[in-house]
What we know:
Blueprint: E1 6-10, E2 31-32, E3 35-36, H1 37-47, E4 52-57, H2 62-67, H3 72-80, H4 84-94, E5 98-103, H5 110-115, H6 118-121, E6 126-129, E7 133-136, H7 141-152, E8 155-161, E9 171-179, E10 182-190, E11 201-209, H8 213-218, H9 230-238, E12 243-247, E13 251-254, H10 258-270, H11 276-285, E14 294-295, E15 298-299, H12 300-303
Parallel strand pairs: 1-4, 1-6, 4-5, 8-12
Antiparallel strand pairs: 2-3, 6-11, 7-13, 8-11, 9-10, 9-11, 10-12, 14-15
Helix pairs in contact: 3-4
Amino acid sequence: MKEVRKAVIPAAGLGTRFLPATKSMPKEMLPLIDRPVIQYVVEEAIDSGIEDLIIITGRGKRAIEDYFDDSPELEMHLRDHGKFEALKTVQEISSLIDIHYIRQKEPRGLGDAILRAEKHIGDEPFAVLLGDDIIKNRTPCTKQLIDLYWEKQRSVIAVETVPQEKVSSYGIIQGTRVAPSLYRIDDIVEKPRVEEAPSNIGAIGRYVFTPELFECLEHTTPGVGGEIQLTDGIRILLQFQEIYAHVFQGKRYDTGDKAGYIKAIIDFALANPETCDDVAGHLMSLGKYEPEVFSAGRVVSETTADSSEKDQ
């Protein structure tokens, strides 16, 4: 069985929820303290054993390519001014992993964006990591899925219980529990109305697929929003193969949502020794901070990370 060595990060979306900021700045480049969101996603892929990364971009996304490229002028400036620690950080970014860029010429949906990577992926299994989901855990979420793919030799998607009022924002599964944190998927529906949803177990932005998904996406017609939906491609694949849903371990931040992005900034600031004290002091001044939740500038829930699984 072939190993999962390649991954796709779709980053071609317009980011309309963050306008006007995203008029000139990709949403994936929004900063979390001193790193853009997409760097955390790339690092998860690397920590999961991915060797070859494809980022699907679109118009106005050049900043992503520039960020992961060499920056000779900046490096020279840092070297000349003796800022060697900053120089090392900048140089490490451009050498993280072999990255290829493929352009989605028009925003036709997540399924179409993934389909752009077909020629590069070939007949190998591959991971998909959405560029606005950050998941913190000692064992990366993508690695959890790869391990299950190796065991089941079938596609695996990450899921979690979502609030009832947000069901209509997710692909919702109907599944049969086969292990404490694993379902065999019977069906999946894109953004159903709450009263029509088969459950409140939603797919989040991590997947491992067999290459047969590409043929399914080629036969997928426009769905919700007039776009080629990944969920509809998964439904077609279900007709030929079993697909599993894994209740992942870890803490997820949906940085594509304004509230989720702000929560991520706060938690990452509290986990950063340079910013922890000032931010914690500010939160205490607002009467919203419980000191015992944090320890030595580290978020306790992140350092005890192989945390208890979210039960369904």
